[in-house]
Amino acid sequence: MDLRPELKDYYGTDNVYACYQCGTCTGGCPVHRYLPEYNVRQIVKDIIDGEIDLSDKSLWYCTTCYICYERCPQQVKPLYLVQAATNSAFKKGLAPESIKEMNRIVLKCGRNSEITSIAKKQRKTLGLPELKENVSEDYKKIAELTGLSKGL
Amino acid sequence: MSYAYYPGCVIPLQAPNYEVSARAVLKEFDIPIVDIEDFGCCGVLAAPLDGFTTLTFAARNIALAEAKGMDVIALCNGCFGTLSKAYHQLEEEETRDKVNRILKQVGLQVQGKAKVYHFHQILYDKIGVDEIKKRIKVDMNTIKIGCHHGCHILKPTDVLHYDKAAYPQKLEAMVSATNAQVVPPQGFEHCCGSLLMPHNQDASYAFAVKAVEQKGEVDAIIVNCPGCFRQLDLGQIMAKRKFNKVLNTPVIFYTQLLGLALGIDHKSLGLDTVHKIRTNTLLQKVS
User: Fold this and answer.
1) Which of A116, A126, A141 sits opposite B273 (nearest CB)?
2) Is CATH 1.10.1060.10 correct for A4-91?
3) Cβ separation B12–A136 shorter than 8 A
4) Are B151 and A63 a contacting pair at CB < 8 A?
């Protein structure tokens, strides 16, 4: 898959060709330490070569710690390249169900989860204000207009 | 001037201990806040799927604050990072117009005027370490603290401009202001592994365990973010089950430590609720 045409829109990641594959990104990556199949340097290379495999599950492992972004000597912003890849994977219907489900909940309640009875009780005990059950319909409307809903 | 209080979605439901202690501390320093009940998810959850939706969700929240003429105080690192990045992106006219075409459909417009602050910036930059020192009523010198900053209060540094990413010192200075002893970690490990949870639980908890272990022998670990809180607190319970490691260090928010130092009762700071690793030993040391 050739992602290159899309990169200009993605937070200035058209700098991708400045990458000389030094591997500082992967060297600092905490995910790589535990899950070596997640390799940022390789992902950047595959994007440059126009050969990124969007069905690769490990693309989704980034914790967004920004270490690669901070340390990259060429300001390639590897983290944003990974997000560009997962965004494209989502458009092709390749996003993990767990991530899609979280987003369905956000569209429904405007939060990452519904209000549980435990949370309600804890808030009351602590004297915190009551919460609206569903925050706003805006989330649903916005997601329809941006196209997010379609992929969910 | 009042600030728009931005709770995000995790804090109100999963870390009310942070919320209650932050409100108590703000009150103590006479910083007025306004609750905006339409504030919701900052948008970060959509980031892996669609960056533009994330930006628009964040812009919606910024627009709500702008409509009231207020700047935003975020408590959660994740919300702070997402809203700050959106603020930065909205500086570009073309992007702003694109977002506004969508926000118009929900009756909102964003100008990119409402500034976004992390709660800690208000404490460090606006109140200041000297003022904090003056207000301390209970000396915390008996306890040792390890600081866990989390990622999104620090990075990306070119957007957030808060503290040094590799060697942050502002939280440390605020902890020292309570006279607690700051124990430097054995290497800085900021990432709690929270976002890895949906994909690989074991690896996610391994991040948390490493972050706890790096803090060494301390009486409590300070976190700034509900995601880090859950990981480091629950992660220690899971450490026994998953890695047969016994860890038992209370994880608290800076607002809880500061609240204790200001003489606020521990129950009013939520120190006896939510925490999986109980805070008894810490509280005994303080009294």
Assistant:
1) A126
2) yes
3) no
4) yes
Which among B13, B156, B270 has the least Cβ separation from residue A66?
B156
Low-confidence ranges of chain A (pLDDT < 50): none
Average pLDDT over residues B14-36: 97
Number of residue pairs across A and B with CB atoms under 8 Å?
177
ipTM of model: 0.97
Contacts of B83 (CB under 8 A, 6+ apart): B6, B42, B58, B61, B62, B72, B74, B116
Tokens of A33: 């330490």
pLDDT at B73: 97
Amino acid sitting at position B140: M
Which of B199, B204, B253 is the best substitution to test chain A (most A C-beta atoms within 10 A)?
A: B199
Q: Which of residues 83-102 of B touch A (CB under 8 A)?
A: 89, 102
Nearest Cα residue in chain B from A34:
B203
CATH of domain B128-286: 3.40.50.11810
The pLDDT-based confidence of B186 (bands split at 50, 70, 90) is: confident
Q: What is the pLDDT of residue B92?
A: 94
Verify whether the Cβ–Cβ distance A64 to B57 is below 8 Å: no
A29-42: burial string, b at 16+ Cβ within 10 Å, e else: bbbbebbeebbbbb
The answer for residues whose C-beta is within 8 angstroms of residue B151's C-beta and 6 or more apart is A63, A64, A65, A66, B77, B81, B190, B191
One-letter amino acid identity for B210? K
pLDDT of residue A8: 76
**Encoded tokens for B105:** 């459909």
Helices (H) and strands (E) in chain B, counts: 13, 8
The confidence score (pLDDT) of residue A9 equals 74
Nearest to A69 among B17, B156, B196 (CB): B156
Domain boundaries, chain B: 3-119, 128-286
pTM: 0.97
pLDDT of res. B196: 96
- CATH code matching the domain that covers B3-119, chosen among 3.40.50.300, 1.10.3720.10, 1.20.1050.140, 3.90.1150.10: 1.20.1050.140
